[in-house]
Every structure is written in C-alpha cells, then in structure tokens.
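Protocol step 6 of 9: fold each sequence in the batch and record its structure tokens directly after the sequence line. For illustration, a two-sequence batch is reproduced in full.

Sequence one:
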Amino acid sequence: MLSEEEWDLLDKLVDILVPFEETTREFSGGTYVTLSKMMLTIKELIFNIATNSPSDDNNYLNENTIFEEAEATVDVEIDDEIISNITNKKISIKNPLNTEGVLEKVKSNIYHALLYYWDTPNIPNNAGLMASLLDPRYKELDFVELEDEKDKIIQKLRDEFNELKPNNSPLAAEQLDPTVPLSDADAESSMRSQKEYRQRRQSKTRKDKFNTHTVVIDEVSSYLAMPVALEAENPLDWWRVRAKIFPTLSQIARKYLGIPATSVSSERLFSHASNLISVKRTRLDTSLAGQMLFLKEIFV
C-alpha cells in the first residue's frame, strides 16, 4: 500500500504533467493548424516550470545547464530480513521510499530537457517561427525575447515573398515610370489644349504617387500592420478570406501553416490503412485504397 506521503507526491506529479498531456492532445490534432503554436507553447511550459519552482531552490533554473539523460534515483534502505519477509508475503512496506526531493528532481529534469531540445541557439526553428509569423494570432512573436531573431525571421519572409511575387510587365512599368518622355503625338496633343494638358499632368501625378505607395507598402508590411486575430479564429480561414488582398503571401502561409507539429496524424493514417487492408481484404487497388483513406480523413 502507498503511504500518505507517496499519494501526496503522486498528486503533485500529476499537477506537473497535466499541461504536457493537454499539449500532446492538442498537437495530435489533424484538422487544424498546430505548428504555429508549437514554439509559443514550449516557451509557456518552460516558464510555468520555472515559476512553480520553490523560491529557495532555483539552482537548476539555469539556461546554461546542459541536460544529461539520467534517471532520478530514490533512496531505499531495506535489509535482507525485510526483503525475505516481503517475498514470503509476511509483512508489507508502509513507507519504503524517501519522497523528499523527488518532485524537484522531476521538475529539474523536465526543465533542462525542454531547454536542451527546444531552447538552444544551435537548433533551427525557422519553420516553427515562420508558421507563427504567418499565423495572424501570433504574428507579433511576443514569445521571442531577442529582437534580432524577430527581424531575421521577418527578413526571411520578405526574401521568400520577393522570390514568389509576380514581376510587373514592361508595359506597366513604362506607363508608371515618370522618367519616360512623352511621344511627339502626345506633346502635340498637349499643346492643343491647356486644359487637356493639365488633366494629363494631374493624372500622371496620381499614378506616380500610387506607384511610390505600392513600393513602400508591400504585402508583408500591410500584413504585419493589421490587428492581431482572435484566438478562436482559424488562420487558414483568415488567409482564405484575404487571398485577394495578399495573393502571394497567402500562398506562403498555406505552405507553412499546413505543416503538422507532430507525426501523430501520419501515424494515425497508417493505423487506418492497417484496418482497411486486412488479412481478408488484400487485393484492393492501390488507387481505391488511397481514395478511401482520403475520404475517411476528410469526413470522419
């Protein structure tokens, strides 16, 4: 039987592990965006463990500490006679374990593991950060402490945007270029009527202002200047509604937001395939099996 101290320890361990269980369930979904929230959630888990540590023992809350895989040991002192009696079921142990310090060891190992796998500068998180930047709910990247890191990922988005954006046609560029001189016919026509000449100049000035405005404010700047979306809003629906406003940026958003944060969805698909193609159903056409799996993922 477990002692009172051990039951209390288990309750506290459950409180520590509940956020991880909830995060695992959330990231295991396959019908909504998961990657954009990954880095934010990991930062929250690290912060929660650090803040819930006792104020008099924060030695392990050091980001420079290297995590080493080692099992937490518990002191158990039982002599041979007691072990013999336990084996023969003559007596039971009421308090065999020393629970002192076990909780802090567990929290320390979890904290250092999170820092080791997710918070070191050597691990590239460009995909996760890019997904967060393209998620209208988290585009401000409040969980990123360094401004240089924010600027770097925004510049990466601009570079990718410049590679995909359609180039202006030569005819359109010539029409909007104020350095292109008027032709002889245009000059002669402008001399016929002073009113027509002024109208042409005003129209040309408006075009020049529009051209300068579009160069300064591109899709990336317009997107970053927009208000943050609500937490309950689906980012894919947000981009679908605004695809005409951001034709190029919406393509990049679908590329990154469609990446799952975990492999659970693909593993689940393999499980569905094993249920579909069983021992008694081994001659299904591959295209038919693929269509059946696709329909199951879409409608079930």
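Sequence two, same batch, same settings:
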Amino acid sequence: MVDDGHGAGVTGGRRRVALAHDWLCTFRGGEAVLERIAASHSARHEVVGVYSMFRGRHGLPVDKAPTVARLPATVPTLGRLPLARDRFRRWLLPMYPRMVETLSDRLGRLHELAPIDALVSTSSAAVKGMRAPSGAVHVCYCHAPARYLWSRASEYEGGLRGLGLSVFGDRLRAWDKESAANVDVFVANSRHIARQIEETYGRSAEVVHPPARTAYFTPGDEPRGEFWLAVGALEPYKRFDLAIEAAREAGAELKIVGEGSCGRDLRKAVQRGDRVEFFGRVGDERLRELYRTARLLIFPQIEDFGIVAVEAQACGCPVLARAAGGALDSVLNGKTGVLVDEESARAFADGARRMPSDALACVRHAARFSEAAFDRAMLDVVERAMAGRKH
C-alpha cells in the first residue's frame, strides 16, 4: 500500500532526493534529525517522499515536523496495521528485512518513472539496508548500528521480542552486515558511533553531529543556583540512579526532568536526607529555565551523542559527564564541564568540585552544534556523494 503523489522531473538543476526513516510513529531525536534533513534538502532539491517501515495513524506531528508531514509516505501494508505501527512494531524484527526489500522495490519503480539522484536514510534499525536505484547514491545518517543486534542486545532479552531475537538473531545480524553494502556513504552522529560502524560493518564514516536548537536554548538573566539537573527518559541505561547517588555523596540538591519505566523505582531509591525533586515531563520554556539556573547538568550515561548536554551548554550550564560515548565530542573537559573516567558516585562528586563556571565558553562551544551547522554539513556530504556517483 503506497501513498502516491510523488513529483517527476528535474527543474532548474535541482536533484531528486528520496528520504528513508525506520518509523514515522513518534517524535524524538531521530525524527528531529529527519526533519532538518527534509527541510534543508527541500530548499535546494526536490524531495520526492519518505520511505519507512512503519507509520503511525497520523504520521509525525505537523507542529514539530512540518516538512516531513507534507511529504508523500511510502510504507508497506504491514507497517500500516494499527497494532504493528504502535506497540508491536519492535516485535516484528524478523519481518524487517522483507519490509526493507519492499521499500527498495517501490523506490525502484518510482526511479523508472523519473530518475532518483540520491537516497538519504536516517537509521538506528533496518532501513539503512534499502537499495538505492541504479545510478543513485545512498547516504545513511546512522544514529547507531541496530542496538537490538549489537551494542545492547542483552537489554532486549525476554518477552516476545527477546524470543524473536533468540531464534532469528544470527540471521538478522548476517542480513544487517550484508545490507550495509547498500550504503555508499555512512555518516555518524559522533566519533563513538563512527567507531561502532567500523567495528560492526568494517566501514568508515564521516561525523556530522546532530542539530541542537541553540537559537532557542540560550543564556538568561536569571541567577544561577546551586542545584544539579538531570534530564532524559527515566530508563535503566540513562543511569539516573547514579545521578541520585552522586548528588547524595556531594550533599547536592538534584532536580530530575523526564518520565520512563524506572520512575517508580527511582523514587523509591531516594533516601531520607536526599534532596531530590522529580518534575516529570516539562515544556521547552520550563526546561530552558532549568538549564539557565542549574549549577550543572549531570550526564552519567553513555550516549550515542546526547543532545541534552549541548542544550545545557547553550544555556551556559556546564556538564558533569561520563568520559565515554558522545560526551567526548560534546563536552570540553575542564572548559565546558568535567569528564569522569570512573563510573561511581564518589568520582562524580569529586568531578563536581572541579566544575568550571565559564558560561561564555559553554555557549561558544554549543554553537558548533547548531541547526545551521548541521544543515550545511549534511548538504555538503550528500552533494559530494551525488557528484561522485557512478552513472
């Protein structure tokens, strides 16, 4: 089942570009990246549509992804079924290769009507396995090699999804490696992910950091307080438990923003004497106010990149982070924050005592990760790839 309405023909030297994304169901960091790519490429080229394994009932929200929401969406029939497109899509892992093959065939048929110059995919699952039509180039912005197969496979054990992986995991890993050959140019969101791409697929990757809203997240006039701030989904790998322990060790007040599956357990972990406040989910204006008034953002997890750390610095707030993952790119140790080598509450408490307080340095560093910088970099990568393609 396909939504038609694709344009045809190239006018004024504009190239025809197709986009691909794993699923159009929720709006998070990956969808923000997709929207920036769609908007910047639509301004210079003809974006013919977006190809995805799954699409929610209404697609992505128009207020957050206006460009993507206007594009024709091509989705396999299975990916439009109510149960599949919502809570059960991750349990359909064995079907992903076939769904990607279907998308490749649909793109190929469009190419026969009017040639496609480039396929630009954004992926942390399977859509990077799409085949670009003959003569077209495939550029993949990779958030991470499929975590359920590689870096976090152990977290997906149990339940129907875990059962599927235990039966089909080896076959899916083989397909994932093999289908990486369909990508002409890999782009990683951090040096950490570039290393994972090399280790997993044996491929090099350019690094283009994801876009941060540095025009919105800016310093304010509010006096900076003494509390620590932690922001993100309350999930195990985010290590909010370690943030609570570190604040306790340092005798600091901690404010936590976010919701997730660990919320109840984290609240139970708070001890008498701890100064921990849970805010749940907050709007952008309130979040910006917290960034502007916190003494520091504590960032104890290992992230692929971690846009929260950049948002905080854009507001002049230094970051106390684990010396691993994307934080190695986003935080300047001793200048815009402190990178902690040891995963312990005491190490983070010690790091907080060494925290720099140069708000201007934080803001200047965060500017490197602006939306405009991302747009320029991705357009350059895609246009260089198109210029060097084989006809």
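Proceed to step 7 once all outputs are recorded. Observation for sequence two: The radius of gyration is 22 Å.
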